[in-house]
Amino acid sequence: MINPKSNPPAASRIFFEEMMFVAYSMITTAKATQKAAMTEMALLGDSKMPH
Questions:
Q1: 1-13 per-residue burial string, b: 16 or more CB within 10 A, e: under 16
Q2: pLDDT digits over 10-33, tens only?
Q3: How far is CA 32 from CA 17, 18, 36, 40, 43, in A?
Q4: C-alpha angle 19/21/26, rounded to 5°?
Q5: Is the pTM of this model over 0.85?
Q6: What is the rounded CA–CA span in Å between residue 3 and residue 44?
Q7: How wide is the angle at C-alpha 13 spanned by C-alphas 28 and 26, nearest 5°?
């Protein structure tokens, strides 16, 4: 009998790594989307303002 505390099963370790990857991907996507939205708003604002 293996002690689960000292040696976690591979399945749970893979699951944990996948969850971390998904969370990181979501954060990265959110930041990229926010940056793109801010850039778009800035471009729209520049086009509406008389130069």
A1: eeeeeeeeeeeee
A2: 888 899 999 999 999 999 999 999
A3: 22, 21, 6, 12, 16
A4: 95
A5: no
A6: 60
A7: 15
